[in-house]
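Worked example 2:
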Amino acid sequence: MLDENCPIEEVRELFGNDRFATEACGCRVIEASRGHAVCEFDIADIHMNAQGHVMGGAIFTLADFALAIGCNMGNEPTVAVSNSIEYMNRAKGAKLIATCNADKSGRSLGFYTVDVTDELGTPVAKMTATCFRRG
C-alpha cells in the first residue's frame, strides 16, 4: 500500500480518507513504519458515553485506525479479519494514544497488538488482531 519509508505527510494524506476516524473522531497519525503506528485523538464531548467516560466504540475506532496504518505500511493491501479488544481502565487524561505493533507479519497473515493509553500512561485498552494480505 505505502512504501515503508514514505514521509509521514503521505501517510496522513492517504489515511485522511478514513473519514470516520479522522473527521468524525478526530484521529491523527503520529508515527508510521512497517509493522508500527501511533495514532491519537484529543478526548472531546463527542467521544463520551452516557456515564461521562470515553465510549468503547471511540476507543475501538482509534485502535482500528492505528492497526490499519501499522499493517499496511510496506505491505500489500491488508485488512483485519478478526479483532478482540479488552477495556482495562477509563481514561484519566485528555488524550488517547494507540500504539500498534506487529507480533508476526507474514506473507498472507499478520498478527498485531494495539495498546491504548491516555497521555498519563493509564492503560485503557488492548486490541489483538489478525489481518489478511490480499496481494
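The beta strands are 28-33, 36-42, 78-87, 95-105, 109-118, 123-133. The chain is about 25% helix and 40% strand.
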